[in-house]
Amino acid sequence: MVATEVSSKLDRLHALLGAETAGVVVAYSGGIDSTLVAAVAARSLGDRALAVTAVSPSLAPGEAEEAAKVARGLGIAHRTVRTRETENAAYLANDVDRCYHCKTELYDVLGRVAQEAGGRLVVSGANMDDLGDFRPGLRAAAEHGIRHPLVEAGLTKEDVRSAARELAIPTWDKPASACLSSRIAFGVRITVEELSKVGRAERVLRDEGFRQCRVRVHGDVVRIEVEATDLARLADPALRERILAGVKALGYRYVTLDLEGFRSGSMNPPGAG
Fold first, then answer.
1. Where are the extended beta strands (E) located within the chain?
2. Domain ranges of the chain
3. Which of 264, 162, 252, 253 is CA-nearest to residue 213?
4. Is the Cβ–Cβ distance between 113 and 81 less than 8 Å?
5. 180-257 is classed in which CATH architecture?
6. Tell me, what's the pLDDT at 1?
7. Can you give the pTM of this predicted structure?
8. Which residues of the chain fall short of a pLDDT of 70?
9. Taking a C-beta distance cutoff of 8 angstroms, is the pair 188, 94 a contact?
10. Cα gap 97→66, rounded to integer Å
11. pLDDT of residue 107
């Protein structure tokens, strides 16, 4: 029954994207949501589909390269563009509307790409679950006329993964990712240096085999989140020492482990949702 429902939603997604005869520009981060949109767009529209990845200091190390590799496998045209949110004082101020400023910059850039490509529609990877989360970026999307085909087709995050697996997308189980600025507490000014440091700190964890992890920054203290099922691994003294050495080498004074484990949006303001 569940598989049938997902297949039905996937059919709706194909129909929605296929109806855009002028073509689409997919805001393609390389996460599984935008990857599913890109995959279906490629199948429905062929060379009228373009996946675009925004590159800036806010993007985690290695993500642009991985996105390009996956796009090649999907058979969709792909390009990268430079976004300059880190040159915007409102973004760097890191208030609760930070994501609004980031997405405004993104959709300004993608809008120009879409116009240059003949007036294509810009589409995002937002899904049904995002509508109930703290997402100021959705306001920026509305202001720019961005469409959310996963929402229109009724796909939840779980549906997206099921649909991606059905389409044999190799990254169907890729861990959730997010802008590096989400690791810094609201109200603490963002710097390009700090974004670089937190990206490299998370690379230390990934190099040790932690697929889903976050390094949350609280001044000179960092709080590590890993999946609850991975917490027991950190009982290994040698592993802890390697992580401590790698993270402290970046300039952080204290390294703590969050016993609640990984939680998406754990830096969101109280009551957000």
1. 24-27, 49-55, 77-82, 121-123, 213-218, 221-226, 254-257
2. 2-166, 180-257
3. 264
4. yes
5. 2-Layer Sandwich (3.30)
6. 39
7. 0.92
8. 1-2, 266-273
9. yes
10. 28
11. 98
